[in-house]
Amino acid sequence: TYTMLSSQLRSGSEHYYYRSEQTLHYMGIPLSLCYNVWGNKQTSVYFTGGGIIEKNISGKLITQYFIDDEKKSVKDEKLSVDQLQYSLNLSAGMQYNIAKRICVYSEPGISYYFKNTSKIETIYNQRPVNISLHFGVRFLW
Fold first, then answer.
1. pTM above 0.85, yes or no
2. d(CA 82, CA 32)
């Protein structure tokens, strides 16, 4: 999997402030198991559970400093998160076959991201529980 985390921050007073934009890129390896609860020729209902191990592959922090709305300087620095990011995922889904090897699906889920010891703040630290709704088309081989 590939994940890009991007965040923006503004701090200071009305006339003296800075704006920062942080971007982190992660590559991950997911592992999950699926259990079919019910199904017939056209429809199936299932549960999926597993986890993802992600590694930060690059990061950047750009900070712009302003005085009276005039940009005075820019600081550009590379970021690196050395610790791996672990998460657990659970979802329930329903799949409808529209052809022999083509189906549509809907899959609401929840993920929990474990805290790591990095000093770099991310959405994973701020809000470790995430709710998702995946839907789309699957091609079965």
1. no
2. 24
